Amino acid sequence: MTSKTDAEKPWTSELTTYLLFIVAITTLGPLQFGYHLAELNAPEAVMTCAAQAKHPTTSAFEANLPTCIPMNPAQFGLVSSIFTLGGLLGAIGAGLIATHYGRLLAMRLTTIFFIIGPLSSAIAPAIWIMAVGRFISGLGAGAAIVVVPIYISEVAPVRAKGLFGASTQVMINMGILMAQLLGYFLSYDNMWRIVLAAAGGLGTLQCLGLFIVPESPEWLAANGRTPQALRIIAKIKHGGATEENVGAWGTAAEGHEEEEGLLTPQSTNAAAEHTSSSKQTSDTNTANPIGILRVVVHPHHYRAIIAVVGVMLAQQLCGINSIVMYSVSILSTLLPTTAGLITVAVGALNLVVTIVCAPLADKLGRKTCLLLSIAGMGTNAFLLAVGIIYSVKILSTIATLLFVASFAVGLGPVPFILANELVGPEAVGATQSWALAANWIATFVVAQFFPILNRYLGKGKVYFVFTGLALVFFVFVAIWVPETKGKKHADEVWGREGREGRERLD
User: Cα separation of 185 and 42, whole Å?
Assistant: First the structure.
């Protein structure tokens, strides 16, 4: 067993350069999600021919491609929102692939979409080709948002799962900021095509990096490949397979004895102890995963599905993507010369606040962070509506910044953490698929219908709708969603005792 001295060591003692590299490479998937979500925001006017070209065509490449593609608002809305439809399909299928064939294969498959999709959009001469490219990019992004949080949760130090889980949202925000920065400087002539093509370069980088990233040790152990899992643990974490690490595995660690030369005495003892105890695990093991249809009616998981889907809907329907995708057009009537710069500032603030607040989920608890976040977004949505309606520039600017900052406190990172923590490992893949399907549908609704609703209600009044939705979701989270901080497994979260082999939560 792990000695008291080992147990008292800070989780940072487990960190290795290899583990940090693994996290950096795998989270390029969520970065792509954020990038594609925001990539059309700044270039909208120039790419739809609403703005005149600044310079004549200067190269053969540019001569073969139109400087802009004429689109009306409905067509541009379709090009923007079709990305989310691809994301929905990717999210639905990714959980099953990750569960049955491994997290690593699923992540490698996403890079194919991350290369083909952006390049198709970048060289598109017509609307339909750009839409197809965006759809393909969405397939990869939807799959990555399902698989990467699962993988990160399974390789992260047990006592820092919340912090490492927040890396998903940090990288999403990094992608948003990168797209906004490139858009701010390259939204003229044909240069907007570089904004779209850059994501293909990121996809290539991730594809190469994933060749030296290992499979999830927890998935390997759950599928009878414990010796390989123990070798990977020994590589990615100082101290190897301690009781704290392998205690989270929902499978017998049989065959570990042949690997004793690779492990420290503490890790060997931990694995041995886990071998004897885990032989009594129930049939809800990850080796017998629950499908996406069965999990909805499963007596131990349906409440978790409702909670996770509700939180994912809250993440989008509180209005964050109205700012991420349309802030330039929203603010340009009020702040015509600084709307683009404010959009970059919003992206930077979102990233900074997400990083600074990343430890809050482990310190204050997941539920507390969600409630604070929803309350902040609802309040600032109301203030933003007032600022836009009455043309109060300073109020609109501050409310926009605080609206995004409030999102970063809880609604940004916490939903992805909860999707792993509210169910046992046998249902994680299916739960992630349902959760992200709900998330993508809500994203599509905002992307497609926000401009229409904003035009129908009149400038700014749509944010009163977001205020009302925030109130509804605040009540839902307060009543239905349990706290997972400090709970060892999903049974403890929901007050079910007696089942063993559950994933440890922190």
Answer: 9
pLDDT (tens digit, 0 to 9) for every residue of the chain, 506 residues total? 445 555 556 556 667 889 999 999 999 999 999 999 999 998 888 898 877 655 555 454 455 788 899 988 778 888 999 999 998 888 878 878 898 899 999 999 999 999 999 999 999 999 999 999 999 999 999 899 889 988 998 888 877 776 787 788 789 989 999 999 999 999 888 899 999 999 999 999 999 999 999 999 989 988 888 889 888 888 887 655 555 555 555 543 433 333 333 333 344 344 444 444 444 444 444 447 787 888 888 888 888 999 999 999 999 999 999 999 888 888 877 777 788 888 898 889 888 988 888 788 888 889 999 999 999 999 999 999 999 999 999 999 999 999 999 998 999 888 877 877 888 778 877 887 788 778 888 999 999 888 888 888 888 899 999 999 999 999 999 999 998 887 777 778 787 764 444 444 44
Distance between CA 14 and CA 157 in Å, rounded? 7
| Backbone angle region of 482, left / alpha / beta, with phi > 0 → left and psi within -120 to 50 → alpha | beta
Helix axis angle, 127-155 to 28-38, nearest 10°: 150
pTM confidence score: 0.78
